[in-house]
Design a protein that fits this description.
109 residues; 83% helix; mainly alpha; single chain; 4 helices
């Protein structure tokens, strides 16, 4: 069970706060990885453009997520959290599969 889903199932406020705190810590890792993508993996001639595009993407996706979460609360207060969990889980699966295929392709002669 993920930390965010423990918020959904939590009968206690302390568990909810702890789960949200852990989510914030994990978000810090995400932020660090976006910085690495901008500085280490982007071509040197395009680093500033990658920086701007990643920032724009984060702002846009955050705004779209907020709008979606707000509209879903009309159905159920816990529905936005469940949708978010599914989206994060899907992103992790896609990233893991992509990484494994890339490593397998590198190993091929």
């Amino acid at each position: 069970m993920s930390w965010a889903s423990s918020v959904t199932a939590s009968p206690a406020f302390a568990v909810s706060v702890s789960a949200y705190a852990l989510t914030g810590i994990l978000n810090a890792f995400f932020f660090a990885s976006t910085l690495a993508a901008r500085t280490e993996y982007a071509p040197s001639s395009a680093r500033s453009q990658v920086f701007i595009w990643v920032a724009a993407l984060k702002i846009t996706s955050g705004s779209a997520g907020t709008a979606l979460a707000g509209s879903l609360t009309g159905v159920s207060v816990r529905l936005p959290l469940a949708v978010g969990l599914l989206a994060v889980f899907a992103a992790v699966v896609v990233a893991t599969v992509e990484t494994r295929f890339a490593r397998a392709a590198e190993k091929r002669p």
